Amino acid sequence: MKWLKDAYLDVVVLLIIALYAVYPNDVLNIVIWVYTALLLISKLLTFVMPTLNSKANKTSAPPIFYHIIYGLTVGIFYYADNLYLSGAWIVIWIVSVISFLKTNKTKS
User: Fold this and answer.
1) Distance CA 8, CA 19 (A)
2) Mind giving me the DSSP string for 68-92?
3) Residue 19 to residues 29, 43, 65, 78, 102, Cα–Cα distance (Å)
4) Tens digits of per-residue pLDDT, 15-73?
5) What is the pLDDT of residue 7?
6) What is each CA distance from 65 to 46, 82, 92, 100, in whole angstroms?
7) Domain range summary for the chain, segments of one domain joined by +
8) How many CB atoms lie within 10 A of CB 30?
9) What is the mean pLDDT of residues 69-94?
C-alpha cells in the first residue's frame, strides 16, 4: 500500500473529474483543461527527453492502477459528454502505454 502515496495526486484528480461530471462548473472545467494540457505535454515530452521517461516510470504503483485511472477518466468524460477531454485522455493513455513498454524494453 506504499504505492498509494505515489498515486495520491492521480486519485485526487480522478475525484475532481468525477465531481465535474456530476456538478459541471467553469472553475473545475478550467482546472481540468489546464491539468490535462500539462499532463499531455509532459507525456509527449518523454519521447524527446529520455530522462523524463525514466523519472515518470519510477513509481511503486502497479501499472494496472494507471490503466484503471485512465479508463475511468475517459469513461467519466464520455459520460459528461466532453469528447475533447475524453480524446485527450485517450492520447495520454496511449502515450503512457508506449512509454511504459519502451522503458521495460530497455530494462531487459
Assistant:
1) 17
2) HHHHHHHHHHHHTT-HHHHHHHHHH
3) 11, 24, 20, 14, 34
4) 999 999 999 999 999 999 999 999 999 888 888 887 766 666 667 778 888 899 999 99
5) 82
6) 20, 23, 15, 13
7) 3-107
8) 10
9) 95
